[in-house]
Amino acid sequence: MLSRLLVKNYVLIDSLEIDFPEGLIIITGQTGAGKSILLGALSLVMGAKADAAMVSEEADNCVVEAEFDVAPSESLRLLLEDNEVESDEGHLIVRRVVNRSGRSRAFINDSPVSVSVLQELSSRLIDIHSQHQTLMLSDKDFQMDVLDHFAGNGDLRACCADAWKELSERRAELRKVEGRIAALSAERDYNEAQYRQLESAGLKEGELAALEEEQKQLANAEDIKMSLGTVEELFASSSGEGMSLDYILKESDRLLSKAGKYLPSVSELAERVDSCRRELDDILSDVQTLNSRVDVSADRLEQVEDRMSLIYGLLKKHSCADEAELIALRDRLSEELFDSTRLLEQKDELARQVSEAESRLEQYATALHESRVAAADGFSESMTSSVRSLELPYAVFAADVLDAPVSASGRDTVMFRFSATGRNMTDMAKCASGGEMSRIMLALKAMKARYTEMPTMIFDEIDTGVSGSVADKMGTMICDMGRYMQVFAITHLPQVAAKGSAHYLVSKEIDPSTSKAVSSISRLDDKDRIMEVARMLSGSVLTEAAVENAKSLLSLN
After folding, report:
1. How far, in whole angstroms, is CA 1 from its chain's centroid?
2. Cα dihedral 342→346→347→350 (10° resolution)
3. Contact by Cβ (8 Å): 335, 184
4. Are 136 and 129 in contact (CB under 8 A)?
5. Contact predicate 402/413, CB 8 Å
6. Which residues contact 208 (CB under 8 A, 6 or more apart)?
7. What is the per-residue pLDDT across 228-263, written as a single tens digit (0 to 9) for each?
8. 3-state SS string over 293-338?
9. C-beta separation of 90 from 69 below 8 A
10. Residue whose C-alpha is closest to residue 444's, from 179, 161, 127
11. CA 330 to CA 352: how far, in whole Å?
12. What is the CA radius of gyration of the chain?
């Protein structure tokens, strides 16, 4: 149950904190006082869409905090554990903060959570019937949900939805594989030609760079050999005195070594000359080797250039940057051309999985159908009895289970038929008046409350379109619901307001210091409650008769 609500800077509410008891709670107030604002604040904390307009003027953010006392349940425990929220022995504090930009943050027991978690939690804690929810009576999904609640089909619906999801996923995968096989078949000739061209090219990574280097050498081979040959000649040629460079260095080394016997410092010079001579010998050897390797071959140059031209052409044709990309393309084409066996095997496996998923879905859909058909008569009788108790003595209600294409909810659709006179039942959405729809919706909600574990239900003017004794009986039905769950009834009817044990008044006043309208809510004591019910009875002028009538209404409850 909702035990406490705190609201700060939400639209016209500056600040309020209020506690709520168990049972039936009545909320009244003048039109425009802020009842819908209060309901909007509660919807916000339970996961409704946030908006910057919710933040009151001159405030940086708004805060709505709701405190719940709930009975421990396995589903609630798992929800909290899955979202890393600490459980507090059935005590939950849910908070939503919205800033000026419209962005919001959500918390459960001070642990940050997503809005979707709030929405999932809300489905376990509170059912809010808004003023326009009666329109849902004509919605086939809503009608299906109500009948399934009555039949206790929650687990079957979940299994059916899982089976539908799995079947949809397997079918999508199968279509994808079949499309791939078809595409490969249509493009096979083209892809095979592409692959064979790349395969015959015998590509290697880094080959083009090596070819470019070799092409430069071959194109300039004669110049290279001329330069290297000249160096050899210079090393071997004689100087003006008829001595070669090697002879000069050897003779210098001999003479310096001889002088070094008498002058030690000259020995170092001899070693340096010897080192230079050896280094020059190595250089000459390398030059000779390189010169012998340089190939002046027009044929080889033509081969290299042809190979480079082939690779350049492939790069351009396939829009690739280098040989690595061409090789990757070749391998991909190879896989597409020669790996069709794997795709065919995958297709067969997916077809088998689709068949199994269809069988499971059919199993759950059949079980749901049988359960709905079995529950439809009892549901119809119960609804007929409830609606007749609301001063529609000849009314009849029926829930028809009809065939429909298979879906996540099975292979049925549900149609509610209704007649206020007991004859010629037809689609309820086409024949029921506004007052009748309100009574039918209340009867459905009362039934849903009996077959679910929802701890709190809120009715926002569900009594719209009725008055007099009908309103009194609707109030009695709501009061009966309050015996085994917490019920909030926002109403303008004194017959309903006189029910229950707790009565709250929503009012709006002008703050003289800021000239700003401010809404507030307060619990009425017995005396104030009499005056509020009397106001609802008499209108703008409070009469003594209205006060006595209010006392009479309250004493009867």
Report:
1. 29
2. 180
3. no
4. no
5. yes
6. 308, 311, 312, 322, 323
7. 777 777 676 654 455 667 777 777 777 777 777 777
8. HCCCCHHHHHHHHHHHHHHHHHHHHCCCCCHHHHHHHHHHHHHHHH
9. yes
10. 127
11. 33
12. 46
Whether the full predicted model's pTM is greater than 0.90, yes or no, is no
Q: Which residues contact 400 (CB under 8 A, 6 or more apart)?
A: 376, 414, 415, 416, 417
Residue 242 zone, left/alpha/beta (φ > 0; ψ -120 to 50; rest)? left
Residue 251 in tokens: 């003779």
- Of the candidates 19, 67, 65, 41, which has an alpha carbon nearest to the alpha carbon of residue 522? 19
Q: For residue 326, give both structure tokens.
A: 């061409």
Query: Using an 8 Å Cβ cutoff, are 26 and 14 in contact?
Result: no
Tokens of 64: 């709505």
Element (H or E) spanning 461, and its range?
A: none
Strand-pairing partners, residue 69, are 91
- Residue 144 pLDDT > 80: yes
Q: Nearest-CA neighbor of 270 among 287, 286, 253, 282?
A: 253
The yes-or-no verdict on residue 292 having pLDDT over 80 is no
Q: How far apart are CA 141 and CA 177, in angstroms?
A: 34
Which residues are registered as beta bridge partners of 62?
98
Write the CB contacts of 362 (distance below 8 Å, at least 6 apart in sequence).
406
Q: How many CB atoms lie under 10 A from the CB of residue 336?
A: 18
What CA–CA distance (Å, rounded) separates 342 from 347? Answer: 9
Query: Which of 262, 233, 254, 257 lies closest to 245, judged by CA?
Result: 233
In the 8-state DSSP scheme, what is residue 48?
P
Neighbour tally for 322: CB within 10 Å: 14
- The Cα–Cα gap between 534 and 553 comes to 10
- Phi/psi for 17 (5° steps) reads -145, 125
Please report which residue ranges of 389-455 form alpha helices under DSSP H: 428-431, 434-451
CB atoms within 10 A of CB 309: 10
Q: Give the CA dihedral 142, 146, 149, 151, nearest 10 degrees.
A: -120
Extract the tokens encoding 332: 């991909």
The pLDDT tens digits for 524-546 are 998 999 998 898 888 667 888 88
What is the C-alpha separation between 277 and 249, in angstroms, rounded? 6
DSSP annotation of 201: T
Q: Which residue stretches of 33-114 are H helix?
A: 35-45, 74-82
The structure tokens 């009948």 sit at 147
Q: Which among 492, 489, 464 is positioned nearest to 479, based on CA atoms?
A: 489
Distances (CA, A) of 476 to 141, 241, 441: 29, 137, 15
**Separation of alpha carbons 410 and 55, rounded Å:** 44
**Locate tokens 């590509």: which residue?**
203
Q: For 320-333, write each residue's pLDDT tens digit.
A: 888 888 888 888 87
Distance CA 51, CA 73 (A): 33
